Amino acid sequence: MRFWLILSVFCSSGLCFDFFLETIPKTVNWSSDPCEDFYRHVCPIGSVSDPLAKAVNSRRNAKQAASKIDHFKYLAHLAYGGTNGLAQRAGQLYEKRCEQGLDNQNLFSILKTLVVFDGHCYGVFCTDHLKLDTDCKRVGKIIRNTLPAFEGDIQKKRVEKLECLVLAAHNYMTIQEHVDQELEEAIMETNALVGEMKEIVKEMILATPWAANNNVIKSTLGAVLSTNLEVDFEKIKKNLFDQLTKIHLNYEECRNQFNNDNDANILCFWNSIDKHEFDKTYIYFEHYDLSFNAVNSFPNIYFGLPFYFIVKHTEELAAVLGSTGYIVGHELSHTLISSDNFPALTYFSQSAIDCIQKQFNSTCTEFKEESCLVQDVHLDENGADILGFQLAYSVLEKHYGNRLKDTYTPLNVTHQQLFFYSAALTSCEGKKGEVLLNRDRSLNGHSPSNIRINSIAQHPGFKEAFQCSDNSRMMQSATEQCHIYGKDAPVSRRR
Ligand SMILES: *[C@@H]1O[C@H](CO)[C@@H](O)[C@H](O)[C@H]1NC(C)=O
Ligand SMILES: *[C@@H]1O[C@H](CO)[C@@H](O)[C@H](O)[C@H]1NC(C)=O
Ligand SMILES: *[C@@H]1O[C@H](CO)[C@@H](O)[C@H](O)[C@H]1NC(C)=O
């Protein structure tokens, strides 16, 4: 009876599933040894790639996400390049209205504002003489023939506003999707993780010899404490909604003046854009994103919707900490690993850099598949991986205490093991690991996924979790643990 009650509550949300219960059995090769090649134990060659992202996509309730903002979509559609044909439509509109004996005062004044550039009005729409000709066809033709010369300039002058409109609509819809998927609580929980990790790293910084010896404790603390996740999505949503609504009302009001004639759409679109002054606070920076990705855009950090989705639909905290928790640690760590690519700090320890790269070099040597490289461009990401795991693991230890080795019965693994399994799943690929390139063929900062995950061998928690012997491949590739911050961090005296 009791069992049934619990089950019915869990299922009442309509989503009777748990991310890791669903994904771990799909990929893990239970007959391989985790201490030999942990990544390939969890994600064998040929297994499904991006299992977490796929699970998120298959579970996202499309019906709920159905947009409630069709009118904004129409504005965005026009902004995306549906604005060709202004001259044809405006000429047609004029002719029709003229023939019906309707007033065209508004049409002429809108045309006039459209052809003002840098405070000067250019062309036949600047004066009133067209209005004095009563031949509807003749004037309609002049509009059709004259306006095309201005269309390029009309667009060019409003490029920035168009971009704002598109981004506002995009950002609004993205946040709305978070609301539709009921992720409010998960966002708050993720932010609580950010806060917990900041507290942990704060204590570490205070005890860091190289930071003390170089007088950068205060500035380093300042950098990490100002790294924030913007959780007030209602505020952002309202700001964008209000702006889009204003533009939409301008647009509708303009169309009304022309009896909602579709030939007025493009004209009214430009007119409504002209009337709006954008507040750009939430326009250029994405605080919310739908992809399986997270970003440190110092001082802001943000996490794609899938990470919140995982928080919402994962029962065991150890699995949340290994996945979303590891990514939270990773993004926060970007602030704390300073290099030429990402110089958030005023000083960073060279010994710490050497330690990080040494581990990745060793992991590369042991586990290289298609290709592997360790260069300066990889330092940020490699460092953020190492420190990010450490932070997430610290939170795990704090919450589980001596329950770390208890069995998580649904999967018959310990909580400690579950943490590592869920971490591997964040970058699970069924194909061979290879050096990643950017679109312009330059080196991407992320190491191959198998290297990123197997570098975790250096964390003492891994050896403990899987009882690895010293001559296993994972332990052979583990270098001395990098204490980037904390009392055991390098001394790095000022020279
Ligand atoms: C699972 O691991 C065993 C032992 O290492 C290996 O023989 C087998 O090929 C692996 N299966 C897959 C699907 O990779
Ligand atoms: C690892 O370090 C050695 C010695 O510095 C170097 O020769 C090698 O190219 C490095 N490996 C990688 C994958 O960068
Ligand atoms: C659970 O795992 C342990 C140790 O890995 C194993 O000895 C045991 O047989 C497993 N139990 C079940 C029910 O599979």
Radius of gyration: 29 Å
The secondary structure category is: mainly alpha
Shape: elongated
Q: What is the domain total for the residues?
A: 2
Mean pLDDT across residues: 91
Q: In whole angstroms, how far apart are the ends? A: 71 Å
**CATH homologous superfamily classification of the largest domain:** Collagenase (Catalytic Domain)
Total number of helices? 24
Name the beta content range.
Answer: under 5%
Under the CATH scheme, which class of the largest domain? Alpha Beta
User: Which fold does the CATH topology of the largest domain refer to?
Assistant: Collagenase (Catalytic Domain)
Protein name: Peptidase_M13 domain-containing protein
InterPro entries: MetalloPept_cat_dom_sf, Peptidase_M13, Peptidase_M13_C
Keywords: Signal
GO biological process, one term: protein processing
Which SSEs are present, and which pair or pack?
Blueprint: H1 2-11, H2 19-27, H3 38-42, H4 51-59, H5 62-65, H6 70-79, H7 86-99, H8 105-114, E1 116-117, E2 120-121, H9 136-146, H10 148-157, H11 159-180, H12 184-206, H13 209-213, H14 217-225, E3 228-229, H15 233-257, H16 265-275, E4 294-297, E5 300-303, H17 305-312, H18 317-336, H19 350-367, H20 379-400, E6 407-408, E7 413-414, H21 415-425, H22 449-454, H23 460-466, H24 473-477
Parallel strand pairs: 3-5
Antiparallel strand pairs: 1-2, 4-5, 6-7
The chain binds 2-acetamido-2-deoxy-beta-D-glucopyranose (3 copies).
